[in-house]
Amino acid sequence: MPVDKYALVDQTVGSIQRTALRIAALPMEVRDEALDAAHRAYANAMHDLGQDNVAAGRWVETVMTAVRVLVHEIDRDAGGDGARA
Fold first, then answer.
1. CA-to-CA distance for 48 and 50, rounded, in angstroms?
2. Between 5-24 and 54-77, two packed helices, what is the crossing angle to 10 degrees?
3. pTM attached to this predicted model
């Protein structure tokens, strides 16, 4: 069965948003650890799909960049004080 590329993009964007929201809700002092855990989870997902190649690594880095940018934007919109109430 062919992969629905639009569904895959939609799922990826949703995952980035959920991950960023969870990390932004954490105290600043644990965010690096949470970002590392998210990176491992995305990399493990690619491995589980049999995608252990350069393109998969780039995908993981792109996703993690998007997560970091979104966390930064959430902080900025919340006043930049770290974890939201």
1. 5
2. 50
3. 0.83
* 76-84: average pLDDT: 70
Is there a domain that residue 73 lies in? yes
Question: Is 14 inside any structural domain?
Answer: yes
Helix (H) or strand (E) holding 64: helix 54-77
Identify the CA nearest to 44 among candidates 54, 55, 57, 62.
57
68: containing domain? 7-77
Which H, E and C letters describe 2-16, residue by residue? CCCHHHHHHHHHHHH
Instruction: Judge whether 83 lies within some domain.
Output: no
The count of other CB atoms within 10 Å of the CB of residue 59 is 17
